[in-house]
Amino acid sequence: MVIRLTGIGVGLLLVLALLGASIALGKQAIPLSEVYRSFVHFDGSREHLIVQTVRIPRALIAMAVGACLSMAGAIMQAVTRNGLAGPELFGVNQGAAFLIVIQLYLVGSLSGSQSIAYAFIGAGAAGALVYMMGTIGSSGLTPLKLILAGSTINLLLGALTQGILVFDEQSLDTMRFWLAGSLTGRSSAVLEQAAPFMIAGVVIALTMGRQINLLSLGEETAQGLGLRNGWVKGLALVAVILLAGSSVALAGPIGFVGLAVPHVTRYLVGQDYRWVLPYAAIFGAILLLLADIAARFVIPSQEISAGVITALLGAPFLIYLAQRRE
């Protein structure tokens, strides 16, 4: 336990270091001393405004989104007992994106609070639909049925979203950067609106460590040990919707974070989800902070989306996992 607690402490220190790097680095590098002065002696200068209104919200959003997506992925892989599961499996990402695109098509624009509200409604509706489809049949909810239902809904919503964007150029221009998984242009006000949902999802997830441990042993084994499988799966679905829905609302459907980080976490700390979940949150925050920093320098003339970086890192990892499971 001492080693694991030490690891959490070291991880948190690394997160803080990367937060500082994310705030200081960019097209215009800002010394850490100037970052500090923007807190204690804000003078309204250009550098101070960049730090307070652009860099700090962006770094905090990257940290929060990375942590939430990783925890959501860890829960899904445990519940489905499928190492290829991620937040995309329940159609949560696509459900959020689909409803936002629908509203943009009908209304033309959305405020930050509206996008969060529509993202949660879409994510919740998609997650609930997948859950209900997975319970159809005499065998009840099984990991295989959950995966099939989630994949079907995910593909359907993705196709509908792309269809709307093809026929509506204005929505395409508004959404294409967000759909690539971008952390730019997000204000602290939007983070404050999403924070209660993120915190609720994190709290639920951290309190489910023991139940997830039992569920990962198998349906019959967990039930024999007195676990109410249906309630645990339902609560896990709520946690995933809160974690992934808030992340999609803030940064768009960033992929592969929820897939890759839980594998790395289990490799380092074992299968005990009382430790896997907090470690996944830390590693997820580290990964997305690194991806966002890298996104600023990959192409010197312009900045790309952090979601592109995670895709470049995650695609080979996904291929490796698929080959290993053959």
From TrEMBL:
- State its location(s): Cell membrane
Membrane topology, as annotated, equals: Multi-pass membrane protein
The family database entries (Pfam families) matched by this protein are listed as: FecCD
Kindly give the InterPro entries that the UniProt entry links to this protein: ABC_BtuC-like, ABC_transptr_permease_BtuC
UniProt keyword annotations, A-Z? Cell membrane, Membrane, Transmembrane, Transmembrane helix, Transport
Top-level division of the source organism's lineage: Bacteria
**Main subcellular localisation:** membrane
Transmembrane residues, as ranges? 59-79, 91-110, 116-134, 146-167, 187-209, 230-256, 276-299, 306-323
Q: Which family does it belong to?
A: Belongs to the binding-protein-dependent transport system permease family. FecCD subfamily.
- The name this protein carries in UniProt is FecCD family ABC transporter permease
Lineage, top ranks: Bacteria, Bacillati, Bacillota, Bacilli, Bacillales
